Amino acid sequence: MVLHWSVYQLTDYLTEVSGQVDERRATEVAVERVAEALDAEIAAVAQNGGLRCCVGFGEDEPPPGFARLAREGRVLVCEGFGTLYTASAALGRNSDESLIVARSGEPLTAEELQMLHGMAQMLGLAVRGIRTLEAERTLRAEREREAGERLALLHVAQERQRLVETLLEIQRTVSGRKPLPEVLDTITAGASGLFEGWAVALVLTEPLNPELHLVASVFGRRVCDDATVRAAGAAAVAGVRTVSIDERARDGTGRTLVAAPVLVEREVAGSLVADLPGAPGPARAHEDLLAAFAQQVSLALTDARVKEAMHEAFHDPLTGLANRRLFFDLLEHAFATSDAGSRDLTVVYIDLDGFKAVNDSWGHQAGDDLLHLVASRITGCLRDGDTAARLGGDEFVVLLTGSAADRGVQVAERVIAEVSEPFSLGGREVFIGASAGIAQRHPSCTSPADLLARGDVAMYQAKQSGRGRAVVFEPSMQVTFRQQMDLQSDLRGARGFDEFRLQYQPIVDLRTGRPVGVEALLRWNHPGRGAISPTEFIPVAEETGVIRDLGRWALERSARAVAEWRRTLPGLRLSVNVSPRQIGVRRFPEEVAEILARTGLPGRALTLELTETALMNDPENVPGHLEQLRDLGMRIAIDDFGTGYASLSYLRRFPVDELKIDRSFVEDVTRSPNDLALVRAVVDLARALRLLTVAEGIGRPEQLSVLRELGCGFGQGFLLARPLDPEDVVPYLSGAPRRADPTADRWERPALPRQARDPERQLGS
Amino acid sequence: MTSTSELAAPGARTEAPARWFGTGHGDTGDIGTAGSQAASAATAGREASLVVLFTSFDEGFDRLLASVREVVGPGVPILGCTTCGEITGEDVSEGGVMAVALGGPGFSATIAGAGQPSGGQRDAGGAIARALPRSGRPHEVLMILADGMVGSQHELLRGVYSTVGARVPLVGACAGSLNFRDAHHFYDDGSGPRILHGGAVAALIGSDGPLGVGVAHGWRPGGEPMNLTEVADSWIQTIDHQPALDVYLGRLGVDDSVAFDPGAFFVFAHAHPLGISRRGGEDIRVVNLADLRSRSMTVASDVQQGAVAWLMETDPDALTTGGADSCGQALAGLGDVAPLGVLSFDCSARKLQLGPDGVRREIAGMRALTGAAPLVGFYSMGEIARTRGMRGMHHMTSVTLAFG
Predict the structure, then answer these.
(1) A506, A462: one domain
(2) Is B21 on the interface with A (CB under 8 A)?
(3) A483 is a domain residue
(4) Does the structure show a pLDDT above 70 at B385?
(5) What are the tens digits of pLDDT across the range B331-382?
(6) What is the DSSP string of B320-333?
(7) Of A155, A195, B55, B269, which is the most buried if we count CB atoms within 10 A?
């Protein structure tokens, strides 16, 4: 069996056939090589019901009607051969000559048939070239004295040589494992060169939507625009034949579009279109030449490797969705074919929430698997005609055409709901989310890229407004978006951390009112914009990955400071926030240990605060890390408890010491029965699990009163103490009555005998 | 030694025999004496339609033909070639003459020969085939004995095929010699002895009984397939777009030192041939020269750019079984008809690899299939068998022709 080697053989074949001096010898060589390549007993050129240049029958006459039956591809039973499977291919469009083969035992495969067609095309080209040359030779003999003939002969010979060289170059490119775009560009450039530099375009149909015609490669001076070229390509695809379209422009000039179909395994996959100037009229020579090149494209695309490359060129290998290039082609096409004033084009820009933590913690393979699953869920939310693509990373986009205005929102909300359901990865449950931006075409929308950018802006707004949301684009968002982009850029540029500083907010024992520790709070003093709120820059730092370095810097800086202050305030504790992207880092526990060693802060004086999301994102690795940190004596606090994916089972599973009640619940604890109930539940839960509770954002006396009544042990907030600059911490905490109490012992997990015997904990640290 | 088989004509089972296949071996005295001895034994006084001679003598072919002519009488076509050893039926002879004679009214044969004309091997093949009229008998085979010391035997076969077509199977081998340096082929169609260089001698044999052809080599594909991405005139320049020699040696886990000595490399390469993918299996191609500077290599015989190839592997048992497999295929081609005799064309490289004991085991395996029918032949430098498609050149292969 011939295994995917037609393109290499064709190079050899073309070299040998085109190197023959006359038509008879070229044809003899061609039929013998065809028989050998296809392991066929018989090969011949058939013409007018007869055979010429036949190999395989020897000096015997072929059976009556053999040429006709073989041209029809019949299965024949022939004396001396048994069953013969026949196949044929014309030597060119409208040619009455065919290359035929007959093989005993088994019919030709699709790939072998494709090669037969390629060999027939090449033989046709070679023979026509030789005939022209021979005709010119005859002419020259007749007009020997005419000096101009010599030049004409030279010209024809050069043309033939150029054609052969161009085809050979294409074959070399195909067989040379060049990247697909380069292969396609070589074909269009080669064809263009033979059309005196006028443009030749390769138009391919999108496999998922054969109605769409994409200009995959174009080379040369252009006469027509993309849309006209696509239309000509579509005509060749529809008719599965070479077509010539003559047009006369308004200025009276003429132009001709010649399009030849490109087939992949006998399916029409696109067309090659020559975009030529000049007066309308039939152009048989152009059609034949273009058809020969289209045959080359067919062979190139039929090659298994190239087929794969073609798929890869237009699809995301991870998810199978359209890739950025294909999506832009489709978007441009949709944009071009829809009315500028219409609003029937919508993009939904989707970005995953929490994906990076999964990727960082569980590795890229898990990330890849997750993206694949997400893609399935997204496509499950779509209808026929909608297009989903992965733009890169964890960004997806959906293109909706001809839809009502609110369908974008419906699709976005459905995608968000689907993605928020847990994923099963290697037997583990993984939780992520999605944010979506929706942008609909508007008369003010200047380009496809503009429409997509609006979707991006809306998606960013969705992220900023709390994630897991679908937000429809509004023009005002662009200002905010630009600011955020500036922020990202500035944050990346501020890696020396000179612009950052730390403040320390005391954490107070609510029963005694005495401070027992401080929480380190990060501040950014932007050189242009002044102080920027952490709620603004922390998500950006998370998004960009800067948070890892920033978090490490904050921990080291604060640990060093608190270690120093503990000389004056021996029981003082430090609480530091840890980002989800930090905790998953493989060496995180070791990094913390190294920082403690460098700064001299005992592990038992440190509390690391993590959000629920950080725990949920990586329930496999995080427990191990937390155990290691606990072994160093540290405590683990759940920050903003109640705002995330609260799951009691996780509280039992993770080695948690504290729950921090989010400020949003504390804010309304005196006004909202629901929030009161929730805070009560958290405190009761903590008591049941023997966890400490810390209420955040206590700003009013009545809040403090309620929290004390509920039994919440500790708190922080403006009412108790504002964040302090480093130089103010020791003076403030040393002052009476609010100072760290070296004898206090409540700042510990309740009723744990081990802790009670711990001298450090006896100091209330 | 002599051995003869005869087969009664249909309907005359108890009457005069119709076809016979006789063999004889001579190894006494000079080449003329040995030839006379062999021919006498093969014909046993009967009028032969064809006499075929295989010899590992390295000179005196005029004398050989003359002495055999004296035995078989005028007009009987005689042809033959030199060998790397003759298969005598029981064992292997080196330095003798093996004669095979076909006769009886159910056999006919014409012979022709052509040295290498200016048009090359292809023209020689065409000339030979045109000189051989079809027999008109129901079964035919064109037996070719070509020169194993010149290249492009595949071109010779192209020339033959273009003339006789697919209806006549092509069988035979390339002449060799014990010293692997010279090869001769010769014939006498009644007009006097002719000794040729290049080209081939051939006999078109017509038979009323069936003829069977077998081809096997005992090698199997190993590892991943490779694509011969650049090939020019049997020079393999790249495999999978990498320098061919790097791929070949790399796959075998050896370095350049294996190719420093061409003789040692020849032996090494014969143990690691390439197999070219064909519809009916793999055609063996042996790397016979490595160019360390250009990192390319040559193979004996034709190989086409774009071909899919494997590094072939085998083991002593599989190699030994190759002969029996080939013989079994040939006998299967006879259908229910018992064999009159069997000709074996076995590669000399296989003989080297099998060693004396392996050769004896291989012959014993073939004889177990042929039964009483004589089994003779020779060790060659390239084998010919075309039964399907157009190609017919083989290497490191056992080709068998059975006469029924």
Answers:
(1) no
(2) no
(3) no
(4) yes
(5) 999 999 999 999 999 999 899 889 999 999 999 999 999 999 999 999 999 9
(6) HHHHHHHHHHHHHT
(7) B55
What is the dihedral sign for C-alpha A298, A303, A304, A310? negative
Counting Cβ atoms within 10 Å, is residue B306 exposed (0-12), middle (13-18) or buried (19+)?
buried
Tokens standing for A395? 């960004």
Instruction: Give yes or no for residue B397 having a pLDDT over 90.
Output: yes
**What are the chain A neighbours of B278 within 8 Å (beta carbons)?**
39
Q: Cite the DSSP H helix spans in A100-179.
A: 110-142, 147-175
Q: Please indicate, yes or no, whether residues A309 and A329 belong to a single structural domain of this protein.
A: no
Q: Is residue A171 domain-resident?
A: no
CB B317 within 8 A of CB A50: no
Q: Does A6 touch chain B (CB under 8 A)?
A: yes
- pLDDT at residue A174 in the model: 67
Of B164, B227, B278, the CB nearest to A8: B227
Position A229, amino acid: V
Residue contact A59–B241, C-beta within 8 A: no
B390 touches chain A (CB under 8 A): yes
> Which CATH number belongs to the domain containing residue A277 in this structure?
3.30.450.40
Is residue A1 in some structural domain? no
Model pLDDT for residues A332-386, shown as the tens digit of each residue = 878 877 776 677 889 999 999 888 878 777 778 888 999 999 999 999 999 888 8
Q: Is A78 on the interface with B (CB under 8 A)?
A: no
* Residues A153 and A210 placed together within one structural domain of the fold: no
Give residue A755's pLDDT: 30
Q: Give the whole-number percent of chain B exceeding pLDDT 70.
A: 95
Same domain, A301 and A333: no
In whole angstroms, what separates CA A480 from the centre of its chain? 26
Q: How far is B227 from chain A (nearest CA, A)?
A: 8
Q: Does one domain contain both A585 and A662?
A: yes
Average pLDDT, integer, range B158-164: 93
Query: Which residues neighbour B352 within 8 Å (Cβ) at sequence distance 6 or greater?
Result: B270
Cβ–Cβ gap A32/B305 under 8 Å? no
Q: Are the Cβ atoms of B163 and A3 closer than 8 angstroms?
A: no
Let me know whether A666 and A718 are in one domain.
yes
B284-294 tens-digit pLDDT: 998 888 888 88
Q: What is the pLDDT of residue A647?
A: 57
Q: What is the ipTM of this complex?
A: 0.83
- Among A264, A281, A313, residue at a domain's last position: A313
Is position A45 within any domain? yes
Do the chains contact at A55 and B305, CB–CB below 8 Å?
no
Range of the domain at A72: 6-163
| CA–CA separation, B89 and A96 (whole Å) | 57
Q: How many domains does chain A have?
A: 4
Choosing among A13, A36, A61, A86, which should be mutated to test the B contact, i.e. which has the most B CBs within 10 A? A36
The answer to whether B163 contacts chain A (CB < 8 Å) is yes
Handedness of CA A128, A130, A134, A136 (dihedral sign): positive
Q: Are residues A376 and A286 in the same domain?
A: no
Contact A338, A401 (CB under 8 A): yes
Measured in whole angstroms, the distance separating CA A324 from the mean position of its chain's CA atoms is 6
In this complex, the residue of B241, B277, B390 whose CB is nearest that of residue A41 is B390
Residue ranges of chain A with per-residue pLDDT less than 70: 1-8, 136-137, 139-161, 164, 171, 174-177, 207-210, 212, 249-252, 265, 278-285, 296, 300-301, 303-311, 340-341, 403-405, 495-496, 617-620, 642-650, 736-765
For residues A475 and B207, which has the higher predicted lDDT (pLDDT)?
A: B207
Structure tokens at A177: 């494992």
